[in-house]
Amino acid sequence: MSNEGHECGECIFVASKEDIYVRAQILRDAATVPVFINFFTLPGWRGHSAFYIFRCPHCRTTSVDYPHGYTDFGLLFLNCDECKKVLPLKVPQNKEIYERERLPLPPSSKRKRKGELNKAADEVFAGRRVRVIDSRGIRLRGEERKSRVGRLLRRLGL
């Protein structure tokens, strides 16, 4: 099996996330702070992603995942394979993940991230009454519009 849409010398093709080989020592020593394994690509992907191993702070299971985005007002996150809880990648302890993903560092405080998101919402929706209500969406004329958050975050550079 190959991945016709993506060929590069930086990553390894695997058929599924479960096929990622992790040395026993890394697996045993996994901590809640994610540790970089390597770049991998999966079937149907056009690019690759950095995969990390971490111990879930909720269920204590060791998981392997790649950064997803965005949650908690602009933070990337990892998902636990077992309990499906989200592990937000906070700054500065996960600074190297943002650098590896070639993304600007979001502000370290939730209040600053929310403020920047509100500022971007004002620019994007030019004059319409817009307010960020939580990390999953905004309120636009009384309706939650989750799909607009990605556009706002791109505008912010998050």
How would you describe what is shown here?
By secondary structure, the protein is α+β, with helices and mostly antiparallel strands. The protein has two domains: 12-100, no CATH class; 110-156, no CATH class. The protein contains four helices and ten strands. It has a four-stranded mixed β-sheet with strand order 1-2-3-4. It starts with 11 loop residues before the first strand and ends with a helix. The model is unreliable at 140-146 (pLDDT under 50).
Structure described in brief:
This protein has helices at residues 24-28, 95-100, 110-124, 148-156, and strands at 12-13, 35-41, 49-55, 62-65, 68-71, 75-79, 86-88, 130-134, 137-140, 143-144.
Topology:
Blueprint lengths: L11 E2 L10 H5 L6 E7 L7 E7 L6 E4 L2 E4 L3 E5 L6 E3 L6 H6 L9 H15 L5 E5 L2 E4 L2 E2 L3 H9 L2
Parallel strand pairs: 1-2
Antiparallel strand pairs: 2-3, 3-4, 5-6, 6-7, 8-9, 9-10
Helix pairs in contact: 3-4
Summary tags:
158 residues; alpha+beta; 10 strands; 22% helix; globular
Number of strands: 10
Structural class: alpha+beta
By DSSP (H or I, 4+ residues per run), the number of helices equals 4
Relative strand content? 25-35%
Largest sheet: 4 strands, mixed
Q: What strand line-up does the widest sheet have?
A: 1-2-3-4
Give me the Rg, rounded: 18 Å
The proportion of residues forming helix, as a percent range, comes to 10-25%
Measured between the Cα atoms of the first and last residue, the distance is 34 Å
Low-confidence stretches: 140-146
Number of domains: 2
H/E order of the elements? EHEEEEEEHHEEEH
The dominant shape is globular
Give the mean pLDDT: 76
